[in-house]
Amino acid sequence: MNNAHTLIYSQSKNRSIFNILDSLAVTVEVTEDPYELPLDHFFGMAARKNKKRGFLFVSKILGKHIPVAPVTSLLSGALLAMRYLETVHDHPIEGRKAAVEALLSGSRQEEIYQSLMDDPFPLAEETLFIGFAETATALGHSVFDLFNNAHYLHTTREQIVGLQSSIEFEEEHSHATEQACYGNKELLQKDGPIVLVDDEITTGKTALNIIESIHAAYPRREYVVLSLLDWRSEANKEAYAKLEAKLGIRIRTATLLAGMIKVDGNPVDTEGYYEYTNSDAAVETEIHSINLSEYENFKQIDDVEYVSISSEGHVNKVPYSGMTGRFNGISSTDRPSIDDYAFHVGVGLKQTRSGGKTLCLGTGEFMYLPMKIASYMGKDVFYQSTTRSPIHRIDKEGYAVTSGFDFVNPDDSAITNYFYNIPYKSYQDIYLFLERKVTEVRLESLLEKIKQVGAERLFVVTVNSQQKGESHAD
């Protein structure tokens, strides 16, 4: 291997070999690329701190580990929705070419995306879309957005006092394997198709786990698995066929890019303490707080008044937002209200910007609503989210995660979270979005790390800041 960082060091039309820090070599053989999207537009590669799988496809369009224009991520979900229509419903999409060109070029993205949102496709059968936490919560929501006669919910790692998960399954290759689904049982009891949405499928075992769990309690005829990337081997695909035969069901799949991967080498073991190598004099960051629940003109769907409990026993009684689909689910009929909320908040926050380059930072599973708000905040706005994914941070050209910081999760002090790829002094304004208010002490670790990136101003934007029954004066 001839490089000390991640580069494609061997490439043909359908086959590429990625060198990851001279430790791992990942061979990617593309077998399906229906929209002719180049690999380097989809992802970069990084070393992952996980012995089960020591590498990570770092998406360039999801808005998770790499900042993107918010509409880019929304449009990628729309393209996956188009692929679903073409593959599962055999429905040709007139605007597909324009959408692909917009995603690749970066031009006309807002126009193309809005035209798709204005004309959602009416599904013949009532369909439930389920996004996987944490990375695909926004992707699943943006796929669902293009349909009528549909519902959406997403899985979660939140633990709720007195509430039992409707579905339980494991994401076996993940660093945090246990997931739950607190969806309204009335949605699950319907017999229409369920569409599972994930950013990437490697073996497909997570999808099979959740299908078995769903089918045991809420049987139906058909399941669909959607993903941006699908790396299942022939043996993995055979496992799908075996489950179909076992349960008497149909499982269909659709993806934007499919192929097979081969991994040689060993996971990267160690990493030094990360700090910016090119930072100059420290910037004194101004911190401002914006509590959206105090503004009567920002009307949202009714809150979800569940009480969460962290792994160390901390209880938070502030309600969750009803606009995420995490709990009771949302319907196609809720879409206008959610979009109206995001528009008014986005326009309001736009007025607080300094006018320079701006980053909107979602937190964990709370991805879609901040992304949607960011899409209305004007030009030169980028979006990404914090994450649970532990990734090796190496400041090398061609490597996908060149900077990043770890911090204590404000909702659970026993869990380490991260944010990546924010170059020093690259943004004038940063907007940190929280779904629920937490104490200053619990937020301190995250704020201290964000201050190190050298932004002039940091806005902490909280959607819900009050417990039920509290007044603004409390």
Automatic annotation (TrEMBL):
Which top-rank group of organisms is this from? Bacteria
The residues covered by the TRSP domain are: 324-449
Q: What is this protein called?
A: Adenine/guanine phosphoribosyltransferase
Give the originating organism.
Peribacillus loiseleuriae
* Orotate phosphoribosyltransferase-like domain residues: 42-259
